[in-house]
Amino acid sequence: xxxxxxxxAEFRNYTRAxxxxxxxxxxxxxxxxxxxxHRLFSEDLAxxxxxxxxxxxxxxxxxxxxxxxxxxxxxxxxxxxTDKRFLxxxxxxxxxxxxxxxxxxxxxxxxxxxxxxGGGA
Length: 121
Prior knowledge:
The protein has one domain. 60% of the residues lie in helices and 10% in strands. The chain is mainly alpha-helical. It is elongated and about 50 Å long.
């Protein structure tokens, strides 16, 4: 139960941040500065994912892969980055919105699976 609650809480925070980024106004001829996701608990709990039910493992691992993939993808489309932020040019906004939306969906599926589970982890 605790593992599920921790993962769901962390994923909810990520989803909230991603949806805020999706709602950001597109700057005219400028860059959108978005924060990088820095995993907190899910990274330390990777070894315990086997305690989840099979259906949960699938969606949780998919959500984690989506987070990692989003970071890589944003690195490729950004005009620059720091340790904490990406600078997304207006020309890449469609790509930014696509990867951000896809990742938020993956996180939402994982949250739903974790919250509706009857397991004990």
